[in-house]
Amino acid sequence: MKNMKIFHIIYCQLILIVMSSVSCASSQNLSTQTDFKVLFNGKDFTGWYTYQREPEPTSCVTGLKMEDDKYVEPIGLNRDPLGVFTVVKLDGESVIRISGETFGILVSDKEFENYHLSLEFKWGEKKYPPRENSKRDSGILYHSFGSEGSRGGVWMKSVECQIQEGDVGDLWCVDGTIAKVNVVKEENGKPKYDPSGSLQTFDSRGERYCPKSIDYEKPIGEWNRVDIYTYGDESIHLVNGQINMHVKGMKYFVDQKLKPLTKGKIQLQSEGSEVFYRNIRIKPISKMLDL
Q: Domain-by-domain residue ranges, the chain?
């Protein structure tokens, strides 16, 4: 009888160990499935490349062609003589600094589809021509494709989540893209995102801009979190945890025919204003965020 009791105790202990191991392994698998992939390593621009259009005459770039005191050629791919894109220390950590001195883009090497993108941004103090007297401006251009410089001599074809003072979350259709948004008309007759409104098409060839519903941006000097969920041909913009844009039916033109736009690269804009980015992460999703 005594031996039977000892055997039972040992057997129970073994069962607990096995169950614990299985539970631990399951937790690790779940953690792996739900964890974000870091897109900025905190050291350099591995996984990214840059493109910059011609600078303003107020900037000095030796060797770049000028005519009538204006630059007439772009800085181009992976050249950064003015240090527009750098990694700096801010608030005790490594972040991306985009000076804004030239119009340019920091572009992901890879395309992404069906994902949750999350990042944080914070405005700096400096502004540059031609936007030295305008709102601070940048942007997250996603589902980006085609050649650099397609729009405005710099941007790729894409859909934009606007990063601009007071306008974070706005939709822009950039060079050959189309999207639909539920809107209501404001007193000035312009559309504004409202989930209860009627569906309107925004077309990069015409009315390509739709304001978000509510401004959730924090005051200058504070970090803001922006999340973009995109699944199929839909996307949702969140600013500091609040939804303020829902985009549907994203498409693009190919040989005058429309095709669903569901994937592409990610661009971060340099657009005349100093801005900092950190905690850039992405993870795949299997369905759209519940509204």
A: 1-35, 39-284
Cis ω before 130 (30° cut-off from 0): yes
CA distance 84 to 48: 14
SS3 168: coil
Average pLDDT over residues 132-149: 98
Compute the radius of gyration of the chain from its Cα atoms: 24
Residues ≥6 apart with Cβ < 8 Å to 72? 54, 65, 66
Which of 281, 273, 284 lies closest to 100, judged by CA?
273
Total number of residues shown for the chain: 291
pLDDT at 11 over 50: no
Domain 39-284 -> CATH class: mainly beta
- Torsional sign, CA 142, 143, 146, 151: negative
| Strand 137-145 with 115-127, pairing | unpaired
Residue pointed to by tokens 């369905």? 287
Q: Enter the pTM of the model.
A: 0.87
